[in-house]
């Protein structure tokens, strides 16, 4: 390391880096923060992640193998809260964080999601520490209706997000699309909004060794069904209902298996039930699998055995699973929106689809399934694209942003 190591505190109020992504409210943000924090710690920096204690049995501090320290702060009841309930515990978290910072010299505070930004704002100011903000997702603007599938998360969200865009020292966006949203919607200073590209673990997510899985051989050589996979928390925003409708629109004799990986968030049981009911209504129980949430290794195995990954999400600031599928050599069919336009190279690593008509999505699936050569060439291109990214280079970009910010003060 050329420059001296930094001391960085990540603040992540509503979900823990120890949670399994795809369960509770853990998703892309957990993967991104854990991967960047691990890469920074492995490069010799001192890294803490401050999160809320949501379980009585959590120890105060947990040392991760990378050297990152996870600190559980008491704020509100020591049980899982629905996302919207966290607004009520921000003030308590803020006090606990301020007390912690009094004994832990910190050069950069990096808040993840707006709850964390609000909780970190005063403690950062009081201690003279620059505050960096990542939103990960941004609420729908009040003048436009909520995006389909989006529930109002909590009353203070939009005002909180807007305030942070003006008060923090730097906003880090995960995509150009998110950067534009921060600039256009909140009127933030462009010099203080920077994109840090995401990475993917190309050792964990890799194509099937030997090039062809048993499932693929079964499909191509023995008349079995190909597999369309969707991955994510079972939240209406993910558009898994559209995935079911799209697969249902494909004639039964050529219909692929639909595999759904992920668990409902704390308040998401009703939606999970609706998805099961839709599968039953379309007579697809025998050709649909609900796997629940999978740990990283198992998930990587599932992705490389799939034929296509579908991302019908109504909004996505990035869509990390697109990059994970690419690294696995699997083409992606995704909605033509937000960060998915950057995560998927249309016509090269996958296909972008607009709108909510299941027939259009079914058409895109059928077109790819009808052309195994195209599937294979897109898969190869996708892997190549993923190999050009890594969490180490993502962490280096982050570090460069931190150092530029420190130098400017
Ligand atoms: N994920 C996982 N296991 C699951 C479901 C999801 O590890 O059962 C991971 C997935 O691989 C990805 C993240 O959770 O890394 C979801 O990120 P994405 O950006 O796609 O969606 P978000 O959760 O941020 O809305």
UniProtKB/TrEMBL annotation:
UniProt domain Glycosyltransferase subfamily 4-like N-terminal: residue ranges: 27-203
Domain Glycosyl transferase family: start-end pairs: 216-384
Pfam families: Glyco_transf_4, Glycos_transf_1
Protein name from the UniProt record: Glycosyltransferase family 1 protein
Keyword Transferase among record annotations: yes
Record keywords, A-Z: Glycosyltransferase, Transferase
Segments crossing the lipid bilayer: none
Endpoints of the signal sequence: none
InterPro entries for this protein: Glyco_trans_1, Glyco_trans_4-like_N, Glycosyltransferase_grp1
A GO BP annotation: carbohydrate derivative biosynthetic process
A single GO molecular function term of this UniProt record: glycosyltransferase activity
Coiled-coil spans in chain: none
């Amino acid at each position: 390391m050329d420059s001296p190591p930094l001391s960085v505190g990540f603040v992540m109020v509503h979900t823990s880096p120890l949670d399994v992504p795809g369960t509770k409210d853990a998703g892309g943000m957990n993967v991104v923060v854990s991967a960047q924090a691990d890469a920074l710690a492995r490069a010799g920096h001192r890294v803490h992640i401050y999160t809320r204690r949501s379980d009585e049995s959590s120890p105060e501090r947990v040392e991760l193998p990378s050297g990152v320290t996870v600190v559980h702060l008491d704020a509100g009841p020591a049980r899982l809260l629905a996302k919207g309930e966290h607004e009520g515990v921000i003030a308590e978290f803020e006090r606990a964080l301020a007390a912690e910072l009094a004994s832990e010299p910190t050069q950069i505070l990096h808040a993840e999601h707006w709850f964390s930004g609000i909780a970190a704002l005063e403690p950062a100011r009081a201690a003279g520490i620059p505050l960096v903000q990542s939103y990960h997702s941004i609420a729908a603007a009040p003048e436009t209706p909520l995006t389909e599938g989006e529930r109002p998360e909590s009353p203070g969200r939009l005002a909180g997000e807007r305030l942070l865009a003006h008060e923090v020292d730097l906003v880090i966006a995960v995509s150009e699309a998110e950067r534009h949203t921060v600039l256009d919607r909140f009127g933030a200073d462009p010099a203080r909004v920077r994109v840090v590209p995401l990475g993917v673990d190309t050792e964990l997510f890799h194509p099937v060794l030997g090039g062809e899985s048993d499932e693929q051989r079964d499909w191509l050589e023995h008349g079995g069904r190909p597999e369309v996979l969707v991955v994510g928390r079972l939240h209406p925003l993910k558009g898994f209902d559209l995935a079911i409708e799209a697969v249902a629109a494909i004639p039964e004799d050529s219909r692929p298996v639909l595999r759904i990986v992920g668990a409902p968030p704390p308040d998401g049981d009703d939606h999970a039930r609706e998805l099961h009911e839709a599968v039953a209504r379309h007579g697809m129980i025998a050709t649909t699998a609900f796997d629940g949430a999978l740990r990283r290794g198992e998930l990587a195995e599932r992705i490389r055995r799939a034929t296509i990954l579908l991302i019908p999400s109504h909004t996505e600031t990035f869509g990390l699973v697109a990059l994970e599928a690419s690294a696995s050599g699997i083409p992606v069919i995704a909605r033509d929106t937000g960060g998915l336009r950057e995560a998927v190279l249309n016509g090269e690593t996958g296909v972008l689809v607009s709108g909510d008509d299941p027939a259009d999505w079914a058409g895109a699936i059928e077109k790819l399934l009808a052309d195994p050569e195209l599937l294979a060439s897109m898969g190869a291109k996708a892997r190549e694209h993923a190999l050009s990214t890594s969490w180490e280079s993502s962490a280096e970009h982050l570090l460069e942003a931190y150092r530029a910010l420190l130098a400017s003060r």
